[in-house]
Amino acid sequence: MSELITWTAAELAAKLAATEVSAVEAAEAHLDRIAEADGALHAFLATDPEVSLAAARDIDARRAAGEDLGPLAGVPLAIKDVLVTTDMPATSGSRILEGYRSPFDATAVARARAAGLVNIGKTNMDEFAMGSSTENSAYGPTRNQWGEDRVPGGSGGGSAVAVGAFEAPLALGSDTGGSIRQPAALTGTVGVKPTYGGVSRYGAIALASSLDQIGPCARTVLDTALLHDVVAGHDRHDSTSLDFAWPSMAEAARGGADPESLRGLRVGVVSQLMQGGVQPGVQARFAETLALLAAQGAEIVEIDAPHFEYAVAAYYLILPAEASSNLAKYDSVRFGLRVVPEGGGTVEGVMSETRAAGFGPEVKRRIILGTYALSAGYYDAYYGSAQKVRTLIQRDFAEAFVRVDVIATPTAPTTAWRLGAHGGDPMQDYLNDATTIPANLAGIPGLSLPIGTAEEDGLPVGLQLMAPAFEDARLYRAGAAIEQLIAERDGAPFWAQSPSLAQARAGKAAN
């Protein structure tokens, strides 16, 4: 059944509904692929075949009994380890939560279960979602399936690689400053950050509460939309959850499958985001895609967003400040790791030893920065000023969306760099999120899809689309049309160009 894992989620769901394949067969095939490939890639932190196969058998039994199941029932799902689950550990990539088991499921996970998706495993990530390469995981880095010497992006590199390497057809991720979209770009997959509040954050281990958002990852725009439909919607457990009647994202994606739907679309290009720092191959693919859109009847409009250049600086004050507050709960007393000094010690001493041992260097760096930014005498100068910049960026978006329907940028300014290439310099990682961070600061939706490979290294390049808040469906419609244009240009869908495809079909491990 090696061919089974190369089907899209939509194709697999149709075959499951028609009983041409069983949920158990689907789960077994993907577990086999994980066993073959993940020793080299390390996309997963935890799998439990007994748990996954038991869930799959339940779906098969319910389908055989004539129960009306959801459209994705029986499809395997990889879950970023930032989301708590009752059936597998939730560590958020940190030693301080090693072995932690949650007594409840995150809302997004609970909705996926209710829809019949099968948890195939928990995916690797930068510790507490702090990073852009998945090198900051306490359990070792994930490697890009396009080249094992390359990073997959972060913080959700595990989820992106899981779908890109055919270890799972769908995955859930989280996006605080690009952690779904940037890995999608670097691995040649599709990832979406929904409108802030569009998907419940309940049960997501918090990093920065005003920025975090749960979202879907897949190999195609339609597959991503199908998962988005499952997890979206109001949740009374999340005070930031939006009570809004969301349209079907899958219907929007199907409506955009004809590139003719691009005719008349006003596409904004932010001049400030294209001034230096963009790899030539990324710039070339982006320009070619804009030309394809123009040839299809879209209108390309240059827009001015003067405050975008301050987005990274503002973000790296707001995020550490909120992280400092959120991570204070890891105190050695309530749950998680506890390190007791030799001979015992005070509560403060145990807490200090525990946090020193349990947190990695990047987490400590951001806690220190955030605590400083919130301290007496500095709050207004740093955190307060960053929030003012955030308001200016929101105004830039509001003014831009008067003139355009979507904004297009390269998702990341470069392709995947080599593991260890940044040499521990955090600024190089931070700047790789320059194009994705503004959407989080504004709370608007963003979608990344692959548009080709760079000449310099043959690695994937991603296109980011952003739309006004609540207009997630607009992104899926436009994204599906662009995806079709790219497939027509290349003669095949982008995922079919993946070096993992032949391996998956042959049942071979990554090499």
TrEMBL record:
<feature type="active site" description="Charge relay system">
    <location>
        <position position="80"/>
    </location>
</feature>
<feature type="active site" description="Charge relay system">
    <location>
        <position position="155"/>
    </location>
</feature>
<comment type="subunit">
    <text>Heterotrimer of A, B and C subunits.</text>
</comment>
<comment type="function">
    <text>Allows the formation of correctly charged Gln-tRNA(Gln) through the transamidation of misacylated Glu-tRNA(Gln) in organisms which lack glutaminyl-tRNA synthetase. The reaction takes place in the presence of glutamine and ATP through an activated gamma-phospho-Glu-tRNA(Gln).</text>
</comment>
<feature type="active site" description="Acyl-ester intermediate">
    <location>
        <position position="179"/>
    </location>
</feature>
<comment type="similarity">
    <text>Belongs to the amidase family. GatA subfamily.</text>
</comment>
<dbReference type="InterPro" id="IPR004412">
    <property type="entry name" value="GatA"/>
</dbReference>
<feature type="domain" description="Amidase">
    <location>
        <begin position="25"/>
        <end position="475"/>
    </location>
</feature>
<dbReference type="InterPro" id="IPR000120">
    <property type="entry name" value="Amidase"/>
</dbReference>
<protein>
    <recommendedName>
        <fullName>Glutamyl-tRNA(Gln) amidotransferase subunit A</fullName>
        <ecNumber>6.3.5.7</ecNumber>
    </recommendedName>
</protein>
<keyword id="KW-0067">ATP-binding</keyword>
<dbReference type="InterPro" id="IPR020556">
    <property type="entry name" value="Amidase_CS"/>
</dbReference>
<dbReference type="Pfam" id="PF01425">
    <property type="entry name" value="Amidase"/>
</dbReference>
<keyword id="KW-0547">Nucleotide-binding</keyword>
<keyword id="KW-0436">Ligase</keyword>
<dbReference type="InterPro" id="IPR023631">
    <property type="entry name" value="Amidase_dom"/>
</dbReference>
<dbReference type="InterPro" id="IPR036928">
    <property type="entry name" value="AS_sf"/>
</dbReference>
<keyword id="KW-0648">Protein biosynthesis</keyword>
